Give the backbone structure.
Amino acid sequence: MGKLEGKTAIVTGSGRGIGRSIAVKLASEGANVVVNDLDADPAQAVVDEIVAAGGRAAMCAGNVTAPDFGERFVATATSEFGGLDIVINNAGYTWDTVIQKMGDDQWDAILDVHLKAPFQILRAAQPVISAAAKAEKAQGVRRNRKVVNISSIAGLYGNPGQANYSAAKAGLVGLTRTLAKEWGRYNVNVNAVAFGFIETRLTEVAADGGATIDIEGREIRVGINPQLLAAMNATIPLGRPGTPDEAAGSVVMFTYPESDYVSGQILVTGGGYEG
Ligand SMILES: NC(=O)c1ccc[n+]([C@@H]2O[C@H](COP(=O)([O-])OP(=O)(O)OC[C@H]3O[C@@H](n4cnc5c(N)ncnc54)[C@H](O)[C@@H]3O)[C@@H](O)[C@H]2O)c1
């Protein structure tokens, strides 16, 4: 029997990268998983992968920044699986430039996806979580629920070219610490994981000037140049970037019963790199 049997998890941006690994790992421990991504095809592929492995998953595709997304996401968990136990705020992308070239739209887009969307999702989850906690208390039962917000070393220490992203990821740390205090009464553990350098589409080597991603019709350049990559590897004590599975492992451990007395913490998953 898995550690998360009977629990229901919602994971944003789980069509690829770290989010996909988180969704697959949660399902392999027995959780029901609602998979979300901006891109429906990779999200459906993750649902299919989980179901083919004998797990349970449902899809809630769409942009996490849509005003009604939080309600729709939470409703998918309750209608498909009858509850909500684990919320993972992972979706996001980078849109980098130095501050003097950064437009308001660029600032707003990154704050919206990395900070406002998690706020809206958690706000939508509150009535479900508080009602469940109240019912469990009346039955004399304590059931821990878990929130893990995905931050970044950039949010803790800053990173040139990422004023928008660093500010958003720092804001997520504040949201994490505040909700740990507000939601302790519901037996919810709220923690964050700040990644260093994990090998995904977001950080793929961009020798030819960079990969682009499509955010609702807008082509946005991501990726890092090979010189920066070599320099980064030299500063990581473990000497290499992390894999999506390694990154996911450090998130999923916060959802296990072993972490039921850990809340309001920010774990740096960076191979020893501290910024
Ligand atoms: N890769 C790293 O080194 C690194 C470092 C620090 C933090 N992070 C964070 O980890 C998280 C996952 O990133 P990743 O490296 O796996 O990137 P990724 O690009 O491989 O995966 C991110 C997924 O999120 C989805 N997504 C993006 N915007 C979305 C939106 N508005 N609505 C719904 N889905 C959306 C994308 O379609 C994609 O499938 C992000 O929050 C990122 O900021 C990554």
